[in-house]
Amino acid sequence: MLRGSLVAIVTPMRDDGAVDFAALDRLLDFHLEAGTHGIVAVGTTGEASTLDVDEHVAVITHVVRTLSGRIPVVAGTGANATSEAVALSRAAAEAGASACLVVTPYYNKPTQEGLFQHFEAIARAVDLPVILYNVPSRTACDLLPETVTRLAEVPGIVGIKEATGNVDRARAIRAGCRPDFALYGGDDATGVALARVGAQGVISVTANVAPRTMREVWEAVFAGDYEEAQRRDEALAGLHRALFVESNPIPVKWALHAMGLIGPHLRLPLTPLSEPRRAAVRDALQQAGITL
Prior knowledge:
Strand order of the largest sheet: 1-2-3-4-5-6-7-8
CATH class: Alpha Beta
Number of helices: 13
Order of helices and strands: EHEHEHEHEHHEHEHEHHHHH
Distance between the termini: 35 Å
Number of strands: 8
Protein backbone atom coordinates (compact mmCIF):
# COMPACT_ATOMS: atom_id res chain seq x y z
CA MET A 1 0.00 0.00 0.00
CA LEU A 2 1.29 3.45 -0.94
CA ARG A 3 1.56 5.75 2.03
CA GLY A 4 3.10 8.95 3.30
CA SER A 5 3.95 12.17 1.50
CA LEU A 6 3.03 11.72 -2.15
CA VAL A 7 3.88 14.88 -4.07
CA ALA A 8 1.42 16.07 -6.72
CA ILE A 9 4.33 17.17 -8.86
CA VAL A 10 4.10 20.16 -11.21
CA THR A 11 4.77 19.83 -14.93
CA PRO A 12 7.47 22.39 -15.82
CA MET A 13 7.03 24.28 -19.08
CA ARG A 14 9.51 26.03 -21.36
CA ASP A 15 8.90 29.55 -22.63
CA ASP A 16 7.61 28.09 -25.92
CA GLY A 17 4.95 26.13 -24.02
CA ALA A 18 6.55 22.70 -24.41
CA VAL A 19 7.09 20.39 -21.44
CA ASP A 20 10.50 21.07 -19.88
CA PHE A 21 11.81 17.56 -19.25
CA ALA A 22 15.19 18.82 -18.02
CA ALA A 23 13.47 20.82 -15.28
CA LEU A 24 11.27 17.83 -14.49
CA ASP A 25 14.43 15.78 -13.94
CA ARG A 26 15.69 18.42 -11.49
CA LEU A 27 12.46 18.12 -9.54
CA LEU A 28 12.67 14.33 -9.45
CA ASP A 29 16.25 14.54 -8.11
CA PHE A 30 15.03 17.08 -5.52
CA HIS A 31 12.41 14.60 -4.28
CA LEU A 32 14.74 11.63 -4.28
CA GLU A 33 17.20 13.58 -2.14
CA ALA A 34 14.45 14.70 0.24
CA GLY A 35 13.03 11.21 0.67
CA THR A 36 9.57 11.87 -0.75
CA HIS A 37 7.51 8.70 -0.44
CA GLY A 38 5.92 8.82 -3.90
CA ILE A 39 5.33 10.91 -7.02
CA VAL A 40 1.92 11.68 -8.49
CA ALA A 41 2.48 12.71 -12.10
CA VAL A 42 0.06 14.71 -14.26
CA GLY A 43 -2.60 15.38 -11.67
CA THR A 44 -4.33 18.70 -11.09
CA THR A 45 -1.07 20.30 -9.96
CA GLY A 46 0.61 18.83 -13.04
CA GLU A 47 -1.75 20.77 -15.33
CA ALA A 48 -3.29 17.59 -16.71
CA SER A 49 -6.18 19.53 -18.21
CA THR A 50 -3.87 21.47 -20.55
CA LEU A 51 -1.70 18.58 -21.77
CA ASP A 52 -2.73 16.69 -24.87
CA VAL A 53 -2.90 12.90 -24.71
CA ASP A 54 0.57 12.36 -26.20
CA GLU A 55 2.15 14.82 -23.74
CA HIS A 56 0.22 13.29 -20.86
CA VAL A 57 1.56 9.82 -21.63
CA ALA A 58 5.06 11.17 -22.34
CA VAL A 59 5.30 12.81 -18.91
CA ILE A 60 4.11 9.68 -17.10
CA THR A 61 6.52 7.50 -19.07
CA HIS A 62 9.42 9.88 -18.47
CA VAL A 63 8.82 10.01 -14.72
CA VAL A 64 8.54 6.22 -14.42
CA ARG A 65 11.67 5.59 -16.47
CA THR A 66 13.71 8.27 -14.73
CA LEU A 67 12.86 7.01 -11.25
CA SER A 68 13.44 3.37 -12.25
CA GLY A 69 11.50 1.96 -9.33
CA ARG A 70 13.27 3.99 -6.64
CA ILE A 71 9.96 5.41 -5.44
CA PRO A 72 6.40 4.65 -6.59
CA VAL A 73 4.76 6.66 -9.35
CA VAL A 74 1.01 7.27 -9.43
CA ALA A 75 -0.27 8.45 -12.80
CA GLY A 76 -3.10 10.94 -13.08
CA THR A 77 -5.39 9.42 -15.72
CA GLY A 78 -8.77 11.03 -15.16
CA ALA A 79 -10.97 12.45 -17.90
CA ASN A 80 -14.60 13.44 -18.31
CA ALA A 81 -15.02 10.75 -20.99
CA THR A 82 -14.80 7.22 -19.64
CA SER A 83 -13.15 5.99 -22.83
CA GLU A 84 -10.37 8.56 -22.54
CA ALA A 85 -9.78 7.72 -18.88
CA VAL A 86 -9.51 4.04 -19.84
CA ALA A 87 -7.02 4.84 -22.61
CA LEU A 88 -4.86 6.99 -20.33
CA SER A 89 -4.95 4.38 -17.57
CA ARG A 90 -3.90 1.64 -19.98
CA ALA A 91 -1.03 3.82 -21.17
CA ALA A 92 0.03 4.38 -17.55
CA ALA A 93 -0.01 0.64 -16.94
CA GLU A 94 2.11 0.06 -20.03
CA ALA A 95 4.57 2.73 -18.85
CA GLY A 96 5.00 0.91 -15.55
CA ALA A 97 3.18 3.19 -13.12
CA SER A 98 2.38 1.80 -9.67
CA ALA A 99 -1.24 2.99 -9.71
CA CYS A 100 -3.51 5.46 -11.44
CA LEU A 101 -5.33 8.39 -9.86
CA VAL A 102 -8.67 8.99 -11.55
CA VAL A 103 -10.54 12.22 -10.88
CA THR A 104 -14.31 12.40 -11.03
CA PRO A 105 -15.57 13.44 -14.48
CA TYR A 106 -15.66 17.22 -14.61
CA TYR A 107 -18.24 19.44 -16.34
CA ASN A 108 -20.77 16.76 -17.36
CA LYS A 109 -22.01 16.26 -13.75
CA PRO A 110 -23.00 12.57 -13.73
CA THR A 111 -25.30 11.03 -11.15
CA GLN A 112 -23.93 8.84 -8.38
CA GLU A 113 -24.87 5.79 -10.47
CA GLY A 114 -23.02 7.30 -13.43
CA LEU A 115 -19.97 7.82 -11.23
CA PHE A 116 -20.13 4.23 -10.02
CA GLN A 117 -20.32 2.87 -13.55
CA HIS A 118 -17.55 5.22 -14.76
CA PHE A 119 -15.04 4.04 -12.16
CA GLU A 120 -16.15 0.42 -12.37
CA ALA A 121 -15.60 0.46 -16.14
CA ILE A 122 -12.08 1.85 -15.72
CA ALA A 123 -11.15 -0.66 -13.04
CA ARG A 124 -12.41 -3.58 -15.11
CA ALA A 125 -10.59 -2.39 -18.23
CA VAL A 126 -7.18 -1.74 -16.67
CA ASP A 127 -4.67 -4.02 -14.98
CA LEU A 128 -3.49 -1.31 -12.59
CA PRO A 129 -4.66 -0.30 -9.09
CA VAL A 130 -7.15 2.57 -9.29
CA ILE A 131 -7.26 5.39 -6.74
CA LEU A 132 -10.43 7.46 -6.87
CA TYR A 133 -10.05 11.25 -6.69
CA ASN A 134 -12.80 13.49 -5.34
CA VAL A 135 -12.33 17.26 -5.58
CA PRO A 136 -15.81 18.79 -6.04
CA SER A 137 -14.55 22.37 -5.67
CA ARG A 138 -12.86 21.96 -9.05
CA THR A 139 -15.03 19.42 -10.87
CA ALA A 140 -18.59 20.39 -9.85
CA CYS A 141 -19.02 16.68 -9.19
CA ASP A 142 -19.09 15.10 -5.72
CA LEU A 143 -18.39 11.42 -5.13
CA LEU A 144 -20.43 10.72 -2.01
CA PRO A 145 -19.25 8.38 0.78
CA GLU A 146 -21.98 5.83 0.08
CA THR A 147 -20.81 5.58 -3.54
CA VAL A 148 -17.20 5.23 -2.39
CA THR A 149 -18.35 2.35 -0.16
CA ARG A 150 -19.83 0.60 -3.22
CA LEU A 151 -16.74 1.26 -5.31
CA ALA A 152 -14.44 -0.08 -2.60
CA GLU A 153 -15.87 -3.52 -3.34
CA VAL A 154 -14.95 -3.35 -7.05
CA PRO A 155 -11.79 -5.38 -7.77
CA GLY A 156 -8.88 -3.10 -8.64
CA ILE A 157 -10.17 0.00 -6.84
CA VAL A 158 -7.79 0.36 -3.92
CA GLY A 159 -8.29 3.81 -2.39
CA ILE A 160 -9.43 7.41 -2.65
CA LYS A 161 -7.88 10.85 -2.60
CA GLU A 162 -10.52 12.81 -0.69
CA ALA A 163 -9.79 16.48 -1.31
CA THR A 164 -12.76 18.13 0.37
CA GLY A 165 -10.79 18.73 3.57
CA ASN A 166 -13.83 17.46 5.49
CA VAL A 167 -12.68 15.23 8.34
CA ASP A 168 -16.19 13.96 9.07
CA ARG A 169 -16.51 12.80 5.48
CA ALA A 170 -13.13 11.08 5.67
CA ARG A 171 -14.28 9.35 8.84
CA ALA A 172 -17.43 8.15 7.08
CA ILE A 173 -15.40 6.78 4.18
CA ARG A 174 -13.03 5.02 6.55
CA ALA A 175 -15.93 3.49 8.48
CA GLY A 176 -17.81 2.36 5.37
CA CYS A 177 -14.97 0.73 3.44
CA ARG A 178 -12.96 -2.42 3.93
CA PRO A 179 -9.88 -2.04 6.19
CA ASP A 180 -7.35 -2.27 3.36
CA PHE A 181 -9.06 0.43 1.27
CA ALA A 182 -6.60 3.36 1.35
CA LEU A 183 -7.61 6.90 2.26
CA TYR A 184 -5.40 9.80 1.16
CA GLY A 185 -5.86 13.44 2.02
CA GLY A 186 -5.97 15.90 -0.83
CA ASP A 187 -5.83 19.04 1.29
CA ASP A 188 -2.49 19.77 2.98
CA ALA A 189 -4.00 21.85 5.77
CA THR A 190 -6.06 18.90 7.05
CA GLY A 191 -3.60 16.10 6.30
CA VAL A 192 -2.67 15.32 9.92
CA ALA A 193 -6.32 15.51 10.97
CA LEU A 194 -7.15 12.91 8.33
CA ALA A 195 -4.25 10.76 9.53
CA ARG A 196 -5.92 10.65 12.94
CA VAL A 197 -9.03 9.07 11.37
CA GLY A 198 -7.10 6.54 9.32
CA ALA A 199 -5.57 8.24 6.26
CA GLN A 200 -2.46 6.51 4.91
CA GLY A 201 -0.99 9.68 3.42
CA VAL A 202 -1.56 12.92 1.59
CA ILE A 203 -1.26 13.76 -2.09
CA SER A 204 0.42 17.07 -1.49
CA VAL A 205 0.93 20.43 -3.15
CA THR A 206 3.13 21.71 -0.31
CA ALA A 207 5.53 18.79 -0.77
CA ASN A 208 6.60 20.34 -4.08
CA VAL A 209 8.53 22.99 -2.15
CA ALA A 210 8.98 21.42 1.31
CA PRO A 211 9.40 17.71 0.59
CA ARG A 212 11.68 16.90 3.51
CA THR A 213 9.41 18.40 6.16
CA MET A 214 6.34 16.76 4.61
CA ARG A 215 8.15 13.43 4.72
CA GLU A 216 9.00 14.01 8.38
CA VAL A 217 5.37 14.81 9.18
CA TRP A 218 4.26 11.46 7.84
CA GLU A 219 7.11 9.52 9.37
CA ALA A 220 5.96 10.88 12.73
CA VAL A 221 2.46 9.66 11.86
CA PHE A 222 3.85 6.21 11.02
CA ALA A 223 5.52 6.17 14.44
CA GLY A 224 2.21 7.02 16.10
CA ASP A 225 3.55 10.37 17.35
CA TYR A 226 0.75 12.69 16.28
CA GLU A 227 1.99 15.51 18.50
CA GLU A 228 5.31 15.53 16.64
CA ALA A 229 3.50 15.26 13.31
CA GLN A 230 1.36 18.25 14.24
CA ARG A 231 4.38 20.23 15.42
CA ARG A 232 6.21 19.71 12.15
CA ASP A 233 3.07 20.39 10.14
CA GLU A 234 2.49 23.69 11.94
CA ALA A 235 5.81 24.94 10.52
CA LEU A 236 4.19 24.56 7.09
CA ALA A 237 0.80 26.08 7.94
CA GLY A 238 1.61 29.36 6.18
CA LEU A 239 2.63 27.46 3.05
CA HIS A 240 -0.54 25.36 3.09
CA ARG A 241 -2.48 28.63 2.87
CA ALA A 242 -0.19 30.65 0.60
CA LEU A 243 -0.01 28.00 -2.11
CA PHE A 244 -3.72 28.55 -2.72
CA VAL A 245 -3.84 32.37 -2.85
CA GLU A 246 -4.61 31.84 -6.53
CA SER A 247 -5.69 28.70 -8.37
CA ASN A 248 -3.33 25.76 -7.97
CA PRO A 249 -0.72 25.32 -9.50
CA ILE A 250 -0.15 29.06 -10.08
CA PRO A 251 1.40 29.81 -6.64
CA VAL A 252 3.45 26.61 -6.37
CA LYS A 253 4.98 27.06 -9.82
CA TRP A 254 5.93 30.62 -8.88
CA ALA A 255 7.47 29.29 -5.64
CA LEU A 256 9.50 26.65 -7.46
CA HIS A 257 10.69 29.29 -9.90
CA ALA A 258 11.73 31.52 -6.98
CA MET A 259 13.67 28.54 -5.61
CA GLY A 260 15.52 28.24 -8.93
CA LEU A 261 14.14 24.82 -9.81
CA ILE A 262 11.89 25.55 -12.80
CA GLY A 263 10.95 28.32 -15.19
CA PRO A 264 7.92 30.51 -14.47
CA HIS A 265 5.69 29.24 -17.25
CA LEU A 266 2.15 27.86 -17.20
CA ARG A 267 -0.28 27.16 -20.00
CA LEU A 268 -3.28 29.30 -20.71
CA PRO A 269 -5.85 29.78 -19.34
CA LEU A 270 -3.57 29.78 -16.27
CA THR A 271 -1.41 32.87 -15.89
CA PRO A 272 1.60 33.67 -13.66
CA LEU A 273 1.06 34.63 -10.04
CA SER A 274 -0.06 38.24 -9.78
CA GLU A 275 2.39 40.71 -8.29
CA PRO A 276 0.28 41.57 -5.20
CA ARG A 277 0.20 37.88 -4.14
CA ARG A 278 3.91 37.18 -4.49
CA ALA A 279 4.91 38.65 -1.13
CA ALA A 280 2.57 36.27 0.71
CA VAL A 281 4.08 33.23 -1.02
CA ARG A 282 7.64 34.51 -0.53
CA ASP A 283 7.01 35.15 3.18
CA ALA A 284 5.49 31.68 3.67
CA LEU A 285 8.50 30.05 2.00
CA GLN A 286 10.92 31.97 4.20
CA GLN A 287 8.92 31.21 7.35
CA ALA A 288 9.15 27.52 6.45
CA GLY A 289 12.94 27.85 6.23
CA ILE A 290 13.14 27.55 2.46
CA THR A 291 16.02 29.38 0.83
CA LEU A 292 15.26 31.53 -2.20
